[in-house]
Design goal:
Keywords: Membrane, Transmembrane, Transmembrane helix. The chain crosses the membrane at residues 7-29. This is DUF4825 domain-containing protein. This protein is an alpha+beta fold. The chain folds into 2 domains: 4-37; 54-177, no CATH class. It has helices spanning 4-32, 54-59, 90-106, 144-151, 159-165, 171-177; strands spanning 66-73, 76-84, 113-121, 129-138, 168-169. It has a 5-stranded mixed β-sheet with strand order 1-2-3-4-5. The N and C termini lie far apart (92 Å).
Length: 179
């Protein structure tokens, strides 16, 4: 009789814990949806940029270069991207450029114009900042096909895309990257 009481209490406790775990796990599954219905790649809902969320939104981008200056005025976004001398290839700069353009026009609702400058700073020489390349693009100038090209861009954009982006190279760019 002495063994029956502790055994019964242990069984009841185990059943209560099992029921609680079952209820908890069903609640979690229901709140997330059925596992079969979860998308493999989820689309982010478009973001409306303002002064309060701009830096947070940019900080989530997988960039290999850092931005040194960001400004937001009405529907115009201006970004200066810092490039360290001799530490980046033209391909990495083009890749960051494409990510920033796609962010501006595919992931936001209210960026209508993007000014983007890639600026090199050479502390050793002490010459300050020098412009490598710049672009000025408007949302209504880019077609969906060009956004698709930017999604898979590897290397230098073609001449049509360069014209749509109003991409301008400096002598410093031509000297450093021989293009």
């Amino acid at each position: 009789m002495r063994l029956v009481k502790p055994f019964t209490l242990a069984c009841i406790g185990s059943m209560v814990i099992a029921m609680m775990l079952t209820i908890f796990s069903q609640g979690v599954i229901k709140s997330r949806g059925v596992p079969e219905s979860l998308p493999v790649i989820s689309e982010l809902s478009p973001l409306t940029i303002n002064e309060n969320n701009l830096v947070d939104a940019l900080s989530e981008l997988p960039l290999t270069l850092r931005y040194s200056k960001v400004s937001w005025n009405a529907s115009t976004l201006a970004i200066d991207v810092h490039v360290k001398k001799m530490q980046h290839t033209s391909e990495s700069i083009y890749e960051n450029m494409a990510k920033l353009i796609l962010f501006s026009f595919a992931q936001t609702t209210n960026v209508n114009q993007l000014f983007l400058r890639f600026v090199e700073e050479d502390e050793a020489v002490g010459r300050g900042k020098s412009l490598l390349l710049a672009l000025d693009v408007r949302r209504d100038e880019l077609r969906e096909e060009e956004l698709q090209i930017l999604r898979s861009l590897q290397g230098e954009p073609d001449s049509v895309l360069k014209e749509r982006l109003h991409l301008r190279y400096t002598t410093l760019w031509r000297n450093e990257f021989k293009s």
